[in-house]
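Team,

Forwarding the record for the chain on the shared tracking sheet. I've put the sequence and predicted structure together so nobody has to dig through attachments.
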Amino acid sequence: MSQNSILDRLWALDTNTVSDALDFLNLKGATFGLQPLWDCPKIIGRASTVKVGSKTESTPTTHLITPVIDAITSDDRILVVSGGTDGISCWGDIIANASKVKRIRGTIIDGMSRDIDGSREIGYPVFGRGVTMISGRNRLVQIESGKPVHMRGVTVHQDDYVIADRCGTVFVPAEYIGEVLALGEKIDRRQSLMVHAVRAGQPVSEVMHDKQFEAISDTDGANMLSASAKSPYQQNPKKASVEDQELVALFRESDTPAVSDALDRLGISGQAFNIMPLANYKKATVGPAFTVRYVPASDPPGSVGDFIDDVAMGDIVVIDNGGRTDCTVWGDIMTQYAGLRGIAGSVIDGVCRDVNRAIADDYPLFTAGRWMRTGKDRVQVGGTNESIGIGKVRVKPRDIVVADANGVVIVPRGRAREVAEIAQRIEKGEASIREMIAGGDTIAVAREKLGYHTLQRKG
């Protein structure tokens, strides 16, 4: 199999699928925490490894990584840099430009980058822990290259295969690339059939049953196609109650900052910590909470997604996965099915994957992060419609969830009308302040006249 053929086949997959293939083969390769540092395109290629570390001598040295860049002669390379230090850069725009000239495909850093706008401007993909402004000059040095490096718990060898996209970064041992590609392609075909099945209306509890995953080696998928062909899509039979519709309408024009201030005024803890939007949503998502609690998988493992057939139109699925970031509980099939069922969105104290599907479908997702590794055989549903914890906030079934580009707040159902009234009063007060300063008043005068400093104070 030629290198071009291998890379073409790897390009046709994504990190979610490759991660699943590695799982089936009991291979390590999926990393957590190495994310795109700008809106990078997907990259695939072969690893050129570099290890950096703290500088201990005062004598001048060649800038780290530059000898490796100069030595590259092929166009299939991805720089894989280990040993970075939090807060200190081991990548910047000058070496990004040099790499671009050498036709290097991108850089994966277990560390930090600075001058990230420079990499963005030339379209050079950089994945890593985060960004900083602090230079690595006289702080970090290159220790070695072309040797095995450790990237977030995964050992990467020179010439291993690399795939990185919006969900993160995966490394594939070169000696197993054939098996990983073959299995990944089967998984990809199977997942496509599953998507077709849920689009056709087949219950997701059947589509995502463990037996479907166990049959991953089946290449034709005839049974699933046959079932989906016989099962045209039916609308969600579970409708929102009159009271649900009334309570949701109270918050339809509100945003989370106003609701948060109202909760503060009433002494209610409802702001979900560290649960953030997948995209910069332009309007709030509001709905009653359908609560789900995940637990570590048993032996044999239990269900991971059957609950979704019980979720009513307009509900928001609120999942307590204990804040776990090592495996996901939501992917493209769940996104597709939830959208078809008229579910309003999902809030997860944990991570999601297949984010391109959710972004393309404009399906609202609010999570503690994104990663590609499946939760299958790692977690299972422990309970539904019971009290759970999300981002340090208790959520009861049918509480009202308000989520937007700022984050997520939970409103206790029994106090929803009270919270909504105060939130609307706060929003009106802030709108009046904006009108006054637009008319020439100082912000201090406007705030004083309208009592801004007491808007969210406990009454």
